[in-house]
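Lecture notes, unit on protein representations.

Consider one protein chain, 691 amino acids long.
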Amino acid sequence: MKIPQLQKKLEVKSCHNKTWEDNYSWIHQENILDVLKDSSKLLPETRKYLEQENDYFEHEMKNTKELQKKLFNEIKGRIKLDDESLPFKDKEYEYWTKTTTKGNYSIKLRKKIGSEEVEEIWNGDLEKEKLKTEYFGLGDLEVSYNDKYLGYSLDLKGSEYYTIYIRDIKSNELITEKIEETSGSITFSLDDKFIYYSKLDEHHRPRKIFRHKLGTSVSEDQLIFEEKSEAFTVGIGISSDEKYYFIFTSDHNTSEQYYFNVDEENPKPKIIKQRKKGIIYSVNSWDNYFYNHTNEDAEDFKIEFCDNLSNQNWKSFIPAKDEVLIGGLVFLKDWIIRSETSNALSKLIIRNPKTGEEGDLTFVNEKVIVPGISLKQRDKNTDEVYLSYSSPKTPGKSFLYNLKTNEKKLIKEQEIPSGHNPEDYIVERLECRSHDGRLVPLTITRHKKTKIDGNANLLLYGYGSYGNSMSPGFNSTKLSLVDRNIIWVTAHIRGGMERGMKWWKEGKLLNKKNTFEDYIAVGKYLIEKKYTSLGKIIGMGGSAGGLLMGAVVNKAPELFLGIVMAVPFVDSLTTNLDHSLPLTVGEFDEFGNAKDNKEHFDYIYSYAPYNNIKKMDYPNMLITTSLSDNRVLFDEPAKFTAKLRDYKTDENILLLKTEMNAGHGGKSGRDGAIEEIAIDYAFILKITKKF
């Protein structure tokens, strides 16, 4: 079959006295945000190219069709399809969700406390069927405080423009006008007369908070708060003691917060602390005190408290610890719980606020685990919580845990219907020295039969942006590769916060290349230690992890047998120069501002994957994208693929697959998600010749 080729239309671009050529910039339409909402506005020649690439993908992968089916069934076979969550006890009802064998979406259930009669208040599959839509994205699902109303928000394209609906649970009828083009989040007022929501502007940024009176016209909605900075986005929530609403506004690097009383008839949000560049803070309210979780004079965060926001006198509550990330607080009447993360490992800390005594809630023998905590009920006068943990080899376990007596009772265990023995797997935590001497943590998962002799293929997963840490929890899908003698390694590279705020700062802005150097150093280390060999690594990353993949494959292609990149941020210079795009302005403190700062421009230009494609051999590559993705526009991976086809000097496979009805997260629904994983894994097994 003929390899697709995107038509060339030369554009010479210039910035800061530098010029460069771009043959494919024409596919970025000026009305691109309209295209995301309505794909019929896509240029016909662009649609034709994407469809040709999809046809080429099908042709090249046709010998894996049976394998894809096998993988799909294998992955699905590890999921307990008819499952139920643990119940949450509200004032009058217990609420929980369930999934069914045939369904793709969750069902929300409730029963009155003391009753056995179960009521179904939401069924995702029935809602999708009613709307006759291919894509079905649920943004938020909230029950009002009086238990009468159900609020939900839907995105039917994948473009993350959510429409809010409020219905009466008993009659199933909508009780107010739908509210369009929102961020999706719904906050009910305590008296259930209003909802608060954030509206998206013309650049798809939530910068306004509105109050909507149920039963009235949306045109009458009251603007509560407006963020003037293009870089900041807003949200609203309620305090732990349900006394205040808090409005949060932030970019990735700086935050500011406002508050007003829950019973204010005409809300007038008051500022808590003026924003300062680089300072993140979050204030909560509990038991007549305000608690501030902040990095001001505390790189890895601290917690301070005061009794009055009008006359603030902050005192230390939890002091800062070097390279130990202090998490936010969970409040109960007699207990305060927080997380701490260091060296890519988290633990839960319990504190008795009366005595100040603290203890570690970790009670597991495994070294690499992910602990979790959730509240059992709305009433905070309890000693019981749900405590959970998992590890790369151990499925999740949930306990009913008594904080006072330390008694724990296993109440839910993640079932693997097709069978799973944790003892068949080995989990290791190693450290690798990067180019500048910093030690990068690695989490390695392998089958006990896999030999460390250099012969195994190895999947090296990475992300490394926005301070997002990669959690080493259990993921049953990985076993389809690990069971086939492929070692799975997660590289906790800089740009995340696995080693605190410093770890993030050392992997962003003019330090961004540390992220790529860390990843390459990890690959070389794993070869040196005989976990794999040169040319046997499969790199994998999505979104900003796709930027990572694009940068490292340009710099060190010889390391890789293959690369899998999902919705990859690969035309990062073009996107950074366009301040009208949804995310660009809010990410100046993450990636820089190339348009207004020559140093930033030169630095981004030096690593941007699209601009640094070279005439050389590249490994096998699978690139996936979605037509309605507004976070990483489909034209980035499309241009990247087209330019790679021009430049690469090898005969290896290069595939671009575009979901024509999906967004940044790919297809909606359980089966859709599994299908996408099966495709990625089939590609990996095809190039490793393991099928």
